[in-house]
Structure formats: structure tokens, C-alpha cells
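Lab notebook: predicted structure, single chain.

Context: the supervisor wants predicted structures on file for every construct in the current expression panel, including those that have not yet been purified. This is the next one on the list. No modifications to the sequence; it matches the entry in the shared construct table.
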Amino acid sequence: MKRARLGRLAALGAAVALAVPAGAAANEVTKWNEIAVNTVNAQAPITSAPPAGAVFVAMVQGAVYGAVNAADRHGKPYLVNRSFPMAGKDAAAATAAFVVLDTLFPGQHADLQAAYAASLLAIPDGPLEDNGAKVGRMAAEAMLAEGHDGRTPIGCTFGSGAPGVWQPLAGPTGAPLCDPSPWVGHGVPFVVGSPSQFRTQGPLPLTSAAYAADVAEVKAIGSLSSATRTAPQSHAGAFWQTNPAANYNAIARRFVDQLSLDLSDSARLFAMLDLSAADALITTWNDKYHWDFWRPITAIRHADADGNPATTADPTWTPMFDPSLSPAVGGAGPALITPPYPEHPSGATAYASASMHALASFFGTDEMTFFATSSRFPGEQRVFHRFSDLTNEVLEARIWSGIHFRNADVQAANLGRDVERYVHTHQFAAAH
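Prediction complete. Output recorded below exactly as produced.
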């Protein structure tokens, strides 16, 4: 994509991003992106939880990009190293997505097969369709062979009980809540070299003044009964406890519709978005279990053991994310709880940062007007005028919710940015 076209897209996006054109038709990339997100989210938590879901959606979008790029070589090869100029891009995209999803989720075969048949029916018969399907299968099989699907049940880990070490919290039945997808931290990245390549600086020392300041902040504004958190902040905290893959991919699909992006640009957009997000989440989960840091609820209740004279224990402190929160505040969906895995760094902030930086990289600007939605508040559209504004709001929302220290959010935002820059530089820069 040439820089001039990027500039035109950005200018157009800033003008029309809030208006979905009447009758806007999905192309094969956006059609299968929506199918992929819905299929992944319908699975058990080991597959559908945000870090795992990011991996599986990325497998689909990476295969789609690899196939389309081979049929219309415009960027650095991915998965398929040869060019196939006689391959149809529509058939390549649909086949790549179908084969990956059908292999990963055989229980959805009937629905996936029906959607694939509908895609092929809309594509003219002939060599372009046949060759496109072959290239799509080639890209899908290459993706599946890379071993990103590392779903392996891992037992709940328990900390030592020492100050600063993460401890599982009890669920409704009294049993400890466990991370549904800890395997992601040992997953195979898509572009990044290893899960530990972007190791963060880690939590603040327990005895430091900076740590005491972080504790004081979340203790005050993140409490269930906070006197300083505003109603809009409480709403934002609940709003962002939604599915990131569904949210951020929907934003990208709206841009495709609004700007009438062609199939090649669409494939690149979703690959940049989802490969960056997945590698950021793999890195984040590896980092979480490397540092194994306690959540604010544990840190505040046991502050008398942290060795810091500037912190004071409150054995009854409860975060905003608590099942007793009024449904009117928390919206629809599961009870809001402290996530059942280590605190540092923030997964939601890393996900947002990588995703928003990917969108900014694609369009060549941070300044775009768009809206985000939330499964907790159906019908609400939260409007932003910069991609970075969304990341910043997610960062603050995790503190307002009482589940993260500021340090974990700031380092997560930096991690997401750094991972996206690496992915863009090593895979997509040649196309820009």
C-alpha cells in the first residue's frame, strides 16, 4: 500500500468512521473474520478466554493473509513463499479460514462447511477459484503445522504465600479460581522470536515509595465503596470487561466497510491487528508467570507483611470488580471478579495497546474517529478520536476496577507497543 493511499484512507476514515454505509457488503476476509471470532468465542474457556482467543483468531487471519499475499504478492511472504498470480484471492481467503477453523474446531464442521459452500457458490467457477482454493489450503496447512494450538490443561498453580506472590482467590463454591488458559504463556509466537523476548522490567519493589503510591491509588479509587471514583469511571471499568477479540475485530471490519478496502488491504489489516495482539498476549502471559505478582486485593489485605511502612493493611478491602456489585453498574454478563491469574503485566492493556498500535500503523496515523462496543452494555457506542485514547482508557479502567496497579498497566501498554512495532517492522513494513 502506497503512502499516498494511506493518507487518503486516513482522511476518509476521520470523516466517515462513525457512519456505516447502507448496504455495505462484507468481502470474504471480513465475512470469515466474523465467523472466526464467533466460532472461537463459542468454545470452552481454555480456547475462548481472551489470551487463548487471540491466538486462535490470529491463526485464521495469518493464514488468510498468507494465502491472499501469495495470490497477490504485495508484501513479504508469510507461510507461502511462492507467488500464485493465477490464484483467485476470494477463494484463497475463504479456503484458508475454513481449513484452519474446521481443523481446530471439528465440532463446528456442519456450520463451517455451510458457510464455506456459500462462499464458493458466490465465486465464479474456473481456474482462479480452483487455484485460489489450493493456495488457501497451502497457507492453512502451513499455519497449522507451526504449533500455535498449544491447548493443554494445566493445573491451578499456588503461590508460596510470601509477600508479593500471587495467590488464587476462592470462587463461589469456595474452590480456588484458576486461569483457564495458562498454556498461552508457553505458546509459539507468530512473528516475535520467543515468548520472553519482550520481558518487562517487572513489579515495583515492595518496599519502594513508588509501590506504596500505586497501592494507595488503587486502594482509594479501586475500592468497591470508593468515595473518589466517579460514576463514569465505574461505567468504563465495567464496559471494558468485554471480549477484546470481538471488539477490536469489529472495529476493523467497520473500517473495511466504511473505506471500501479491497481484499488485499483487508487481509493485511486483520493480519497486522491479530498477529500483533496474539504475540502481545503470548508475551504477556509468559511475563505474568515469570513475575507471579499478587493482585491488589491480596496486597492491600496483607499490606502489613510487605515491609513497607507507607502501606497499611485493610483486611476487608474489596475491589470494584466484586460479585456484589449492582448489575445496573456492572451491566450484562458474568459477575465482575478479580481475574484468576498473576497481576503483572495487565493483559487487557497489552491487548488494547498492540491492537490500537496495529490500526495506527496500518492507517499511518493515530488520529481516526471510530466507536467501540461492549457485550456488557448492548447498544452503547463509545466514541474515540485517536487509537491511543482507547488504550489509555483501558489502562485507567483496570485501576478504577481495583484489579491492577498502575505500574502493571503502564508496562503492559509499552509491551503491546513494542511487540506491534516488531511485528510491523519484520513482517509488514515492506507493504507500507
